Amino acid sequence: MKLNVGMVGYKFMGKAHSQAYKDAPMFFPDAPKPVMKAICGRDPEGLAQAAAQFGWESMETDWRALVARDDIDLIDINAPSNAHKDIALAAAKAGKHIFCEKPLALTLADSREMLEAAESVGVKHMVGFNYRFAPAVQLAKKLVEEGRLGRIYHYRAWFLQDWIVDPDFPLVWRLDKNIAGSGSLGDLGAHLIDLAHFLIGDMKEVIGMSETFIKERPMPSSMTGLSGKGSVDAPKGPVTVDDAALFLTRFANGAVGSFEATRYALGHRCTNAFEINGSKGSVKFDFERMNELQVYFGDDSEEVQGFRRVLATDPAHAYMNAWWPAGHTIGYGQTFTHEVVELLHAIAADRQPVPNFRDGVACQAVLEAVERSIVERRWVGIEEM
Amino acid sequence: MKLNVGMVGYKFMGKAHSQAYKDAPMFFPDAPKPVMKAICGRDPEGLAQAAAQFGWESMETDWRALVARDDIDLIDINAPSNAHKDIALAAAKAGKHIFCEKPLALTLADSREMLEAAESVGVKHMVGFNYRFAPAVQLAKKLVEEGRLGRIYHYRAWFLQDWIVDPDFPLVWRLDKNIAGSGSLGDLGAHLIDLAHFLIGDMKEVIGMSETFIKERPMPSSMTGLSGKGSVDAPKGPVTVDDAALFLTRFANGAVGSFEATRYALGHRCTNAFEINGSKGSVKFDFERMNELQVYFGDDSEEVQGFRRVLATDPAHAYMNAWWPAGHTIGYGQTFTHEVVELLHAIAADRQPVPNFRDGVACQAVLEAVERSIVERRWVGIEEM
Amino acid sequence: MKLNVGMVGYKFMGKAHSQAYKDAPMFFPDAPKPVMKAICGRDPEGLAQAAAQFGWESMETDWRALVARDDIDLIDINAPSNAHKDIALAAAKAGKHIFCEKPLALTLADSREMLEAAESVGVKHMVGFNYRFAPAVQLAKKLVEEGRLGRIYHYRAWFLQDWIVDPDFPLVWRLDKNIAGSGSLGDLGAHLIDLAHFLIGDMKEVIGMSETFIKERPMPSSMTGLSGKGSVDAPKGPVTVDDAALFLTRFANGAVGSFEATRYALGHRCTNAFEINGSKGSVKFDFERMNELQVYFGDDSEEVQGFRRVLATDPAHAYMNAWWPAGHTIGYGQTFTHEVVELLHAIAADRQPVPNFRDGVACQAVLEAVERSIVERRWVGIEEM
Amino acid sequence: MKLNVGMVGYKFMGKAHSQAYKDAPMFFPDAPKPVMKAICGRDPEGLAQAAAQFGWESMETDWRALVARDDIDLIDINAPSNAHKDIALAAAKAGKHIFCEKPLALTLADSREMLEAAESVGVKHMVGFNYRFAPAVQLAKKLVEEGRLGRIYHYRAWFLQDWIVDPDFPLVWRLDKNIAGSGSLGDLGAHLIDLAHFLIGDMKEVIGMSETFIKERPMPSSMTGLSGKGSVDAPKGPVTVDDAALFLTRFANGAVGSFEATRYALGHRCTNAFEINGSKGSVKFDFERMNELQVYFGDDSEEVQGFRRVLATDPAHAYMNAWWPAGHTIGYGQTFTHEVVELLHAIAADRQPVPNFRDGVACQAVLEAVERSIVERRWVGIEEM
C-alpha cells in the first residue's frame, strides 16, 4: 500500500517531516509507503530548492491547487500557524487525510471547527505532538497504563530554553503576538500540556502567571530568520508575547500538577522534562537525554531502591526493534519517523491516529484557560472553555 | 571566649545541635567555645540517657529552671514547635541569647512577638534554617551577590520526600494539625521559602494549592515515633494537614517563582532542590548531592558552554578550609556545625547572626499568605500579612 | 556532482550506510549527491527485500560483477570481515573509490596489502570508524588540537557491552575465531584504539590480557542471527574468542593509557567511553550519551571549577548546523551520515578522506601487538609489527 | 565499658581520628566509649594546640613514654609512615591494642613483622582503610557476599586526583621517595587494592606501569605543608616518586581487573571509584558521591533494566540508622567514626577488627608485586612475594 503526500511548508518542520517520509519505509517496511508527491510554498525559489534537497516529486505554490490534486491522499500542514485552519478545512472538504503541526490553530474555536470538519467527512487527522514518540516517553505511558506507578499523585513539567536571553536578540515573528499568537506558553507549554494529557489525563482547573522580561527588542533586518541576529542599533519594537509562563493544575483524577515554560533559562537548550509520582513508583524524563527514562519502584527491596536509568533502546522498547542493537541511541529526528509511522498504520487500519485533532483541541482548551486565569487572576475550570 | 549553652529538646534536632557544639571547637578554633552546660526535657529517663550520650554536663526537667540559671548564656530551643514561643519570650526576658529551630512559631503573630521580645532586650537571636550553611548553597548566594548570574528571572524550588506514601503508615503527630500546625507546607515549604529569601529576596504575592491524598490513617500505637509503624488493624483517624503544597510567586525584584513541597514523591528521600536562572547564568542545587552546585555561565565560549558540576569542597568554598582536603565531602550534620559557628562568631562580634528571627518572621508571613491563598483561591500579597 | 555507489552487504551496517546515503543530500546539500545505484549480496531473496526496503536501484549477487560495472564510482564494503580484502583489491584494480567497514581485514598483512593497492592506483579509501563522527568526539579532538587540554598525560578508554552474559546465549559466528578473527578486542577494542589514535596519536608499546569466561555455549539453530537465542538443550561447542580484553599503553607523546573491552559488563549496552587528562584540562565521553562531552578547564576561576556538561548540539559544533536547532539531539545513525559526508567531500576535493586505510592499518597493528603481548606475556613495541 | 586511647600524630589523620573518638559515643552508644587520654607528637607547641583543639586530656612528646603508660589501652598510630613500625612493635610488646594508619609500613617485610608482633601477643590490630566504611561500599560488599552479583567477571578501579598538576607546585615530602616510599601507587593505589581485596578477594598476578610527568619541582620553603605553595623561583629538586601508576590484575577467582592511580587528572579532586561486573549484576561507586551506589540487576524485567542510583542513607544501610533520617547524607569524616566503632566493638567482643594487619600485609604484597612488575617489565605472581 502506498500513500501520496502533499506537504505545505518547507522550513524546520518541513525538513523534519521529509526525513520521516524518507526513512519510514526503510525502518518500518510493514507500514504503508509514503510517496513524497508534492511540496507547496509561496516562494518559488525557496520551494524549488527544498523540493530538490528533500526529494519531493513536484511543487505547488498555491495550497488550494495542492488540495485540489487527485493524486494526493494526505495533506501535511506545517505552514505558519495562522494558515492551519483554512488549509485543513479545505483538505477535509476535498476528502484528504490531514497531518497538521501543532498548534492546531490560533484559537480554541478554530481548532474545534477543524476537528468537526475532519470528523464530519470521516478523514483521518493527526496533530504533530512529536515528543510522545520518544520511546522513553512511550515507556512512561506504558508504566502508567499498566498501573505500575499506582495512583498518580503529582505531575511536574518544565520546558526550559534560553535562545532569547540576549536582550539584543531581534524581535523575530515568534515574539509578535499578531503572528505567533502566544509566546512560551503556546510554543513550549503546548507540548507540556499534551504530554500531561497523554500520560495522566484531563485537567480540571488551572491558574497561571506569565512575564515578559525584555519588553523591547531591536527590529530584525529583512534577512533575519528565527535564529538570526539583527543590528543592535536598529530601532526597537515591543515584545508582545510572554517570555515565561507558569501554571498550577488539578487533574480530573485528583493529582496536582505544576507547569513551567520559559525561554530565559540559561543553560537549557531544550529541556522538555516531566516527573510523575504515583503510589507505587515514579518516572522522570528530560528530552536533552531523550533515550533515557528514570524509573523508581516503591516495591524494590529495601536496600536497593533507587531511580533506574533505563536506556530505552532495547528491542522491548517501543519502535526500537526497527532501528539498531540495544544501546545505540536515536535522536530528535526519529520521533517524527515514529509519528509518521503511527499515521500510516492508522490510515491502513482505518482508525484515527493518536494524537489527533481531539488532542489538539484539548490542548488548546487548557492554553486558553491558562491565559484567562492570567488575565482574570483566578482559577479557571477547563469546562468553562 | 566561652559560651555556656542550655538546650531544650533532645530528639533529632537535639542530636544535630549537640554534634555541632562538640565538633565546632575542633574545626573552628577561632570561634568562641560552646560549653554544653545543661540539657532540658520533660522525661527524666530519656533526658538522662541523652545527656550522657551527647555529653551535656547537667540536666533540667523544667525549661523555666534552665532559663533562670545564671551560668547559661544561650538558650537553644529545639523542643516541639508549639513550645518555642514561651521559651523564647522567657529567655529574652532573662537576657539570654536565643537559638531557635524552625519554624519560629505556629503563627505569624507569635513569631513577630518573639522577634520584638528579643530585639527589645538586645540579645542575639538565630533561627535554624540550616540548609543555608551547605557550602554549595553559600556559593550560589555568592554568585548572585557578585552579579555573576545577572538579573534574576526565574526561581524554581522543590522539596520532595516519600516517607508517608504507604497508606498504612500511622497517623503520627506530624499529620495532626493541632500539633504540627501544617503539613508539607510548613515542614518542607518553610525551608524552600527561606532559601528563596536568602538567595533572591522578598516575594510580592503568592497563589497556592494543596492536597491531602490519604485522608485517614491507622492511629499509632503508643510506641510509634516519627518513623514507627503502627498496626494496620488499628482504628483510623483523619489526616488534618496537607500532603503536598504548591505555589507560584512573584518576587519583589520581578522574578517569577514556583515552589513545590510534597511527602508523596517516591524515590526522593530528601530532595531539597532549587534552580536560579539569571541573565548571565544559572545554578542548580539538590540536597541529596549537597556538596555539589551546578553552575552555568552565559559568557563561556560558544563551543564549551554547559553546566559545571562544582564540587564545593575546595578551600575557596565557604567553611571548607576547616575540614578536609579538596574532594573530601561533608554531610548533613556539618551544616549545623557551620550554623553554630555563625552564631558563635556573631555573639563574639556583637552583631546579629544570620538567619535570625527577622528571617523566621519573613518565612512565616509567606507561609500564611500561601495558606490564605489556598483557602480564598486567589493571589495574596505578602504586604497583606 | 553525483557519485554512483555500489554496496556489498545489506545487514546491520548495510542499513546504516543506506540511511546515510539517503539523508546526506537532504542535510548536507553542498556535498556531492550519492546515488544508490546497486546493492550486492549472495542471497537473492534477502537481497531483493533489502534493495526495495532501503531504496537501491539495482542488484548484483556477485561482487565481481558489481566491481566490473562502469556505472559505479564507489564500492562500499560492509560484507563479513573475511571478504573485505578480496573485494577491496578488486575495487582498487577497477579504479573505484573504496569505503570499507572496520576491521579493514583479518590481519595486519592483509590490511597493508589493501592500503598499498588503493594507494598505488590513486583511488580514495575510507575505513568505517564512525564513532569519530559524533560531534562531541569532534569537539574533544578540536580541544586537543587547539592545545586547550595542554600536554596530554593520561588516556583512559573502555567499551563495555553485556549481550552475551547469559551462558545459554548461543555460539553465534562472532564467538568463532575462524569467522570473526577476534572477540571483544577486535570488535570493541578496535574502536577504542582508533579513537585514541584520532585524539592522542600513536602508541609506543602495549601489554594486555584477555579472558574467555564462558568456554562452551549451545550451538545455534540455523535461524539464529546475532541477537537470536538458540535452544538451551542444543549440543555445546567451544567459544574460541576472548570475552574481555584489557591492555596498558605508552603513547609516543609520553602519555599513559589504559584500555578495556568486554561483552560481560551487565548494565552497559554500548558504553564506548574515554577520558583524557591533560595539563590544562580534561574531557570525558560516553557513547550512551553521545551528544554530550564533559569538559574541565584548569584555568576556570577557583570557586567555579567543574566538569561542564557540554551538549554538543549548538551550531558551533561540528555538523550540527545541518540538523536542528540547539538542544535537539541526534543519534547513532547520524554518525554514518557525517562519515559519508566526509567521504563525499574528500572525493570532490580530490583528497583522502579521514579515517582512511592508513588508520585501518594503524589500528590493526596495535591489535596484533596486543594479541602478541597476551600470548608472550610481555610488553610489545608497536614498531615490532 | 571504656577504652583509653593514646594517639601518635595530630595532623590530617589525627584530626579525623579525633573527631571519630568524639562522635562515636554519641551516635553509637552501644560501643565501648573511647576516652581521649593522651596525644603524642614531637613539636610541643603544635602538640599543645592540637590537644586543646581536639580535646585530648594529656600530652606526650615521646611515643615511648606514651606506650609505657599504664592508663593507655589502645595506641593509635597516624604519625608519618616511616615511624609506624617501631611504634607498633613497641605497642605490641607493651600489650596495647593497635590502630595503625595505612600504609602499615614502608615494606612488605616490615608489615609482616608488625603483624607477627601483634599476633604473637594477642592484641587487637586494625589498619586504617577507611573507605571500606562508606555505607555504599558496605552495600556493595553485601551484594557480592549474598551472591546478588553472581560470579564476578571484571573489577575496574581508579583513584584520580589533581593536586600536583601545576608544575610549580613545590617538592613536598610526598614527592620524595626517601620519605614517602611511593607516589600515587602507595598513596592512592593502596586504597584501590584494599577495596578490591575487601570486595573481590585475592589477586593472583599483576603487571604495571608508572610515570613521573614532572621530573623537577621547586624546593619548598620551610613553611610549606602538603597544600602549600613554595616560591616559583626556588631552586629545583628531583621528583623521585611516581605521578601515575596503572596495573592489570588476574584475581584468584578468575576475574580480570584494571587499576589506575594518578595525581594528574584535572577535574578530579578525590575520585576513588570502582565498578564490579558479575554474571547477575553490576555496581559502581565514586567517592565524590560517597552516599550513592549504582546497582544493576540482570534479572530486572526487560523494559525497566537500568543502573539504580541507590542513596545509601536508609536505615537498612550499614551504620545509617545511627545518624539521620533517610536522605540526609554523611561525609568523609563519618567513615572514620564507623571505622573506630568497628574497632571498639571488636575489642569488646574479643575478636580481631576488620580490616586488620593481615589486610595491611596483603595490600603491601600487591604494592610490591606491582613495583617489581614495573621494574622487571613482566607479570609478577603475588605468591612470589
UniProtKB/TrEMBL annotation, chains A, B, C, D:
GO terms for molecular function: nucleotide binding; oxidoreductase activity. Residues 3-129 form the Gfo/Idh/MocA-like oxidoreductase N-terminal domain. Keywords: Oxidoreductase. Residues 137-283 form the GFO/IDH/MocA-like oxidoreductase domain. Pfam families: GFO_IDH_MocA (PF01408), GFO_IDH_MocA_C3 (PF22725). InterPro entries: Gfo/Idh/MocA-like_OxRdtase_N (IPR000683), Gfo/Idh/MocA_oxidrdct_glycsds (IPR050463), GFO_IDH_MocA-like_dom (IPR055170), NAD(P)-bd_dom_sf (IPR036291). Gene3D superfamilies: Dihydrodipicolinate Reductase, domain 2 (3.30.360.10), NAD(P)-binding Rossmann-like Domain (3.40.50.720). This is Dehydrogenase. It comes from Paenibacillus darwinianus.
